[in-house]
Structures are given as C-alpha cells and as structure tokens.
Amino acid sequence: MDIKELVEIDGSYLEGGGQALRNALSLSSILRRPIRVVKIRANRPKPGLANQHLHAVNMLRDITNADVIGNALLSTELEFRPRTIIGDMYREDTHTAASITLIYQTILPVLLFAGRPSRVDVTGGTNVSFAPQVEYMLQVLQPNLKRFGIGFELKVLHYGFFPRGNGRCQLDVEPVRQLSAGQFLDFGQPQTVDGVAFCAGRIPMSLATDMQETATREIHKLWPYQDCRIQVIKHSPDKARDNGAGIVMVAHTSTGCVLGSSALGQKKVLADMLGSEASSQLAGYMSKEICVDANLQDQLIIFMALASGCSRFRTGPLTQHTRTAIYVAEKMTGVKFCVDINQSGQTVVSCEGIGYRNEFIQRNE
Ligand SMILES: Nc1ncnc2c1ncn2[C@@H]1O[C@H](COP(=O)(O)OP(=O)(O)OP(=O)(O)O)[C@@H](O)[C@H]1O
Question: What ipTM was reported for this prediction?
Fold first, then answer.
C-alpha cells in the first residue's frame, strides 16, 4: 500500500454518520495518509459537518499541522493532509452542546502516537444524545482500552447538556510505543453492577432516585442476589448550571469484562422508563454473556487495526457503526477483519493489527 497516496472515504457508506469521518481522520493523522472524505454524514437529516465534527477537524489540523480543504459547517467534502503529531496542551470551546466525548473519540487515538503527553481541554456537552455520556467514557471505555495498553485520565470540570452545552472536560493522554492486542472473549460470571443516576439544574433529585430504583429492581428481578449499586447524584450548581438527567449502568464480570448501558433524560420521558431502558439493555448483554456492549464495538475497531497481534471480541449482533468502522479501518490500514457468528447469535470479531509503532518515541531514544 502506498502510504502517501490519497485515500477516498465514502461517508455515505453503511451508517452514513460521523463515525466514518472520525475514524478516517484519526487514522489519516496517525499514518500520515492524506484523505478525502466525500458525502459526509449523507444519511443524517442535516448532512455535512456539524459543530462537533468541525471542531474535531480543526483540532486535528492543529495537532498534525495538516493542510485542510472543506473545513466549514455543513461541508460534505473534506480533504485532510497531515504532517506530524504534536503532543501538547489543547483547548477548544465549541460554544454549543457538541459532544465532548466524540471529539475525544477522534483525537485520543492520534495523541497516543505523539512524542509526549498531551492535555485536551474541551467545552461542549458531556451528556448528549447519540454519543457516549462522559460517565460511559470513564467507567466503560477507559477500563476496556487498558487491554490495549492505553492509559488516559479524564476529568469532568463541569457537566453540560443540550441545548446550551457549558460542559468542560480535561483529557490527559499518555503516548504509547505500540498498542497490544486486546482480548475480550471470556465473559466469566457477572460480579457487580454499578453506575450513576444523576440530575442537575431544576430537575428534582426524586427523578434520579426513581431511575435508580427502577433499574435496580429490574436487575434484581433477573438476578436476585446481584450486587447492584447505582449512585444517585444531584450535581451542585458549580458542577452543572443547566437542567439535565441520565443514567449510566456498568456491569463487571469475574474475568474483567466491563459492559455499559445508558439512557438520557428527555422532556416527557418518565424516570422509570429511563431506568428500565438502561437496565434492560444491560440485562440483555449479561444474559447473552457477551464481553463487549453494542456501543463499545465500533469504538474498539480502530485500536484493533493498529495493535500488534490479533485482537478479538465477543459481542451481540454487529451494529452499522461497527461495520462502518471496519470499512474505514480496512481501507486506511490494509488489515482484514473476520466476523464469525455462532449458533447462539454471538458474534466474534477478530483482526491481526498492523502493529503500528510510535515513530516519535522510537526516534527520541
Ligand atoms: N448511549 C451510548 N453509549 C455509548 N456510546 C454511544 C452511545 N450512543 C452513541 N454512542 C457512540 O457514539 C458514536 C456515534 O457515532 P455517529 O456516527 O452516529 O455520530 P455522529 O455522526 O457524530 O452523530 P450523527 O448521528 O449526528 O451523525 C458511536 O461511536 C457510538 O457507538
């Protein structure tokens, strides 16, 4: 594969959302391969770059000293030619409720391959729809990425919700020499369920309590002796200015699997519906004994493609997001993903990664 050749990514393929763009940008930056992404977010009601994507593009432009064409709101085509990776302190204010965790999803893989540690401070939304809630990133993504040898610290300085945003987080990234292959095959036995049911602003504490009680009751219906400790939190005004509510649940197993589920408060949606939505997702994962939840699937693909050795995970049905992430990873790196579905409906995804080495760390030695 000619590493300097421009790769064209079709943003309308499969999921047709921001996932293809984010993964293409991250891999382009890491491998220093120029890309052109066309038909960006073609399957979304408002196609093209939204705020979240534009901020991620511009942050990566600065991190990689890239030449960029098409970095404007609603742009449906983008050309990105990165030059390097600069580990440093970065600060971005989206002035909206753009998902902070999705901006991190684009930037974290890149800064792992910088020559020194970085801090990325972003203002936007911490708990918004169609994106990982910040608690999911902390309690589910972080422990799972440890299996690839990835270390990051995430601090929530302020929580922020749709429509105003005003959330603020700090991500500290430690570079790696090379990623290890991650194994997520052995479910073991369910051990504990924990998590958080929160509310903020004018939303009463009783809503968080109701979410927690419903979620706990439903887990206990299926596993009466299951240790289930969901914290109920009302964020203080110095931690969250606006109204917001949600629940994130996390299951831990005896073999170290960490699976998450969540629901976000919305107008006219009752607390027990939110508690029930999160607990039924989690109960589904636990009863099928899978190791990777439906949302984590697509978030692991990029690391599997870059790691040294064969990574494998056991999950439920593959999501369109995951298929999209596989399409991008295969096109950008040349790896091949294998997808096997067994009789009980579990899917095993495996991939021999390219064993990408951090050239900045090797060079400094
Ligand atoms: N509840 C959730 N918990 C954890 N991760 C989530 C959750 N909902 C979505 N995600 C993750 O967020 C990402 C969303 O990708 P998607 O392509 O849909 O985003 P987007 O393009 O930025 O938004 P849009 O849907 O507006 O195009 C995926 O990685 C998905 O797994």
Answer: 0.96
